[in-house]
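Quick review question:
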């Protein structure tokens, strides 16, 4: 009887130590500083044509499976979002609880035309209607995109701070974001991949 009790206690202790070890490994990964965007010298005019030209953006970084190119001019920011998909992609700015409160750039290319929405998520798992049906406005100034060879590129221009209640301001420095990718060019199709990260903007 004594051996059975001792064995059970030993097994419990091992399980507790193992669980503690796994938990300890997660903290550094979650708190790790975001990778610094690679700087590029701007040498050409920005165009929302779905083509990321050399020298069109000042920096680029990877956020999960999304490649993000950025360029700031005055009080505006230009972004290119690039991912491996024949469907849609989205970037959510300033999420508060999962998806809740995220100011979303959502889009796809259908029949050669870019379809891009300015959305806002009202709950942790949605829904995320367009701003203009929530009392806000569509604040993407210029947009375009391309889809070829399984690669989708969306390009947008907006103000760093739009003043819209359905938008979140972007700032110089670290910006908390979420991202998602869907497998069909349809806003009604659920994401197949998603994640979170930090968008770093530099002047």
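Suggested answer, residue by residue:
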């Amino acid at each position: 009887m004594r051996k059975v009790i001792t064995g059970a206690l030993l097994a419990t202790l091992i399980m507790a130590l193992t669980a503690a070890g796994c938990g300890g490994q997660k903290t550094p990964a979650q708190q790790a500083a975001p990778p610094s965007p690679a700087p590029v010298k701007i040498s050409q005019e920005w165009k929302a044509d779905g083509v990321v030209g050399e020298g069109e953006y000042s920096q680029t970084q990877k956020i999960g499976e999304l490649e993000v190119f950025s360029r700031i001019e005055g009080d505006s920011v230009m972004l290119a979002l690039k991912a491996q998909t024949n469907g849609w992609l989205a970037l959510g700015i300033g999420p508060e609880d999962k998806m809740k409160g995220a100011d979303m750039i959502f889009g796809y290319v259908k029949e050669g035309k870019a379809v891009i929405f300015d959305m806002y998520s009202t709950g942790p798992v949605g829904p995320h209607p367009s701003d203009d049906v929530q009392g806000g406005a569509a604040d993407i100034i210029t947009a375009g995109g391309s889809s070829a060879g399984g690669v989708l590129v969306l390009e947008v221009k907006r103000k760093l701070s739009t003043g819209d209640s359905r938008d979140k301001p972007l700032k110089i420095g670290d910006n908390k974001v979420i991202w998602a990718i869907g497998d069909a060019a349809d806003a009604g199709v659920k994401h197949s991949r998603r994640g979170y990260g930090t968008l770093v903007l530099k002047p």
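Why it works: The longest helix spans residues 2-31. The radius of gyration is 21 Å.
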